[in-house]
Amino acid sequence: MKKIQFFAAGLLMLLLSTACTGDFDEVNENPNLIGEISPGTLINPIIYGMSSHQALRSADITFELMQVTVPFPSVSGGLHRYDVSPNVGNSTWDNSYKWLANIREMRIAAEKAEDENYLAIALTLNAWVYSNLTDIFGPVPMTEASRAEEDILYPSYDSQEMIYETILADLEKANGLYNLEEAMAYAPDILFNNDILKWKKFTNSLHMRLLLRVSNRTETNAFQKLTAMIENPEQYPVFENNAESAILQVTGVGANVSPWGRPQDFRLNVKMASFFIDNLNAFEDPRRPLIAATGTDLDNNNIGYIGIPSGYAGSDSQFEYNASNLQIVPVTNPMQIFILPYSEVEFIKAEMAQRGFTSDAQTHYEKGVKAAIEQLKATMPDTYFDNSIVQYNGTLEQIMLQKYYALYFVDYQQWFEYRRTGLPELPTTSAMLNNGIMPSRFTYPTDQQLYNPDNYKEAVQMIGNDDINTKVWWDN
Questions:
Q1: How far apart (Å, rounded) are the C-alpha atoms in residues 230 and 241?
Q2: Other Cβ atoms within 10 Å of 234 Cβ, number
Q3: Closest by alpha carbon to 216, among 268, 160, 170, 174?
Q4: Distance between CA atoms of 133 and 139, rounded to whole angstroms?
Q5: Cβ contacts of 166 within 8 Å, gap of 6 or more
Q6: Which residue of 28, 318, 423, 454 sits 20 to 30 Å from the alpha carbon of 376, by its own alpha carbon?
Q7: Peptide bond connecting 73 to the previous residue in cis, omega within 30 degrees of 0
Q8: What is the DSSP letter of 157?
């Protein structure tokens, strides 16, 4: 952003100086400055900036809410006890709008250049960021957002219904815009290395995610649209293997570095939650050593993978062992940032088949499980499905439990899917606040009440109350 602002300032000075020296035949130009913003100058900062922020939020927020990890020691409070501070969503709000402004510029530049591939990508990135933003808060500014140059300094909020109508239509449009015969014009992007087919598959995979998200709203006909997409793979290609996934490969080279400048901070004062690790133990799952270290007793003897209950009551001293901790390798250069993995697509297909709209639920379930294991670089055991606990039993509960693990470290997706389905069933304790009820959203940043009060009040009227228990539009 600073570079873009610097460029804009430099351009303004150039224009002013040109206006004042109209008699000169030539204007001196600095060859080191970008002459014009292009889609290619914006795409990589957007991808890295937004995905790296979401990786941090996944570890700090989703892990606690969804009983992946527990802060320890933690005698009272904490997100794992549903103690939600008013500013918990502030950084996501601020970062989202920072990069949405850049996405808007990318879209404008693509339209000006008549470059349909970059326009399709801009529409996809816009849908990706806005879907997360509105699923966290509900109504948010969209139509009037990022338009300060038009003197719109206090944008109105759009309903979540309108936002979803817009981004779903944009994803449909993007799918039709891609031209596989025309190469992308600029330097390789850091997500798909300018592979247009992979970008198209990302667009449609995201489209499937968001249709399923709003499927509780029968007026959206989401299940019917999803069925049409699944049954028409030529028109709507989606991810077919892990190599095609929207997973940012963080190389550690240049600016493409781990969001954790100190990887050791990733596991500082953190232990694995019992729910998360106990299920993996029951699965005899090969992901355990890649995610967590083994625990020890007080004599430092290895006692295997063991967690601490989320929202535990009583003192920290009740746990007479050292629980498993996170491994730091997953956040050390090189690393992966998960945006939308192939495994999620298979679990969407499995749910659609389980609900009776399509077929082969077991096949898609097993493909999803295998892909989820392998996306973490673990090896899928040949005997994995011999375990009766993981054998497909035809229930949505089993699909969603395995999807929960497939969405490990994927921004806020575990939380969103829990709110949509109530699955997996998470244990509660007497020490949990909010009556032991999972928060349904985050409250708006407090600065909205201070600097955009009228529009903030209208937004609150749309949803009823700016409260963590107020359900968003699709969560009925």
A1: 16
A2: 5
A3: 160
A4: 9
A5: 130, 142, 158
A6: 423
A7: yes
A8: P
What is d(CA 337, CA 339) in angstroms, rounded to the nearest whole number? 6
d(CA 257, CA 200): 26
First vs last C-alpha separation in the chain: 38
Main-chain dihedrals φ then ψ at residue 409, nearest 5 degrees: 70, 20
Q: Which residues partner with 321 through β-bridges?
A: 297
**Two structure tokens written together for 259:** 């969001």
- Residue 280: HSE in the Cβ half-sphere, 13 Å Cα cutoff: 29
pLDDT tens-place string over residues 132-177: 999 999 999 999 999 988 998 999 999 999 999 999 999 999 999 9
Q: Which two tokens stand for residue 91?
A: 């950084």
Q: Which two tokens stand for residue 19?
A: 């206006």
Helix axes 342-354 and 361-375, enclosed angle (nearest 10): 160
pTM: 0.92
| Contact between 297 and 261 (Cβ < 8 Å) | no
330 neighbors 336 (Cβ within 8 angstroms): yes
The SS3 assignment for 335 reads: strand
Contacts of 348 (CB under 8 A, 6+ apart): 208, 209, 212, 226
Q: Is the pLDDT of residue 184 over 50?
A: yes
- Residues, the chain, total? 476
Return the closest-CA partner of residue 242 out of 375, 55, 68.
375
Going through 84-135 in order, the beta strands assigned E by DSSP cover none
Residue 140 has what DSSP assignment? B
CA atoms within 13 A on the CB side of 418: 24
The encoded tokens of residue 372 equal: 């989820």
Cα Rg of the chain (Å, integer): 24
Contact in structure between 472 and 459 (CB atoms under 8 Å): no
Closest residue by Cα to residue 338 from 474, 209, 164: 209
C-alpha–C-alpha distance, residues 206 and 267, integer Å: 31
For 445-473, write each residue's pLDDT tens digit: 999 999 999 999 999 999 999 999 999 99
Instruction: Name the strand (E) or helix (H) holding 270.
Output: strand 270-272
- State the alpha helices, DSSP H only, in 305-378: 342-354, 361-375
Give the full edge-to-edge strand order of the sheet including 295-297.
302-304, 295-297, 321-322
Distance CA 231, CA 226 (A): 9
The 10s digit of each residue's pLDDT in 15-55 is 334 444 444 344 444 444 455 789 999 999 999 999 999 99
Distance CA 245, CA 346 (A): 12
Q: Give the type of residue at 236.
A: Y
Look at the block and give the residue holding tokens 């989703």. Answer: 62
Residue pair 409/330 in contact (Cβ under 8 Å)? The answer is yes
For residue 295, give the H/E element and its range: strand 295-297
Dist CA 273 CA 379 (whole Å): 23
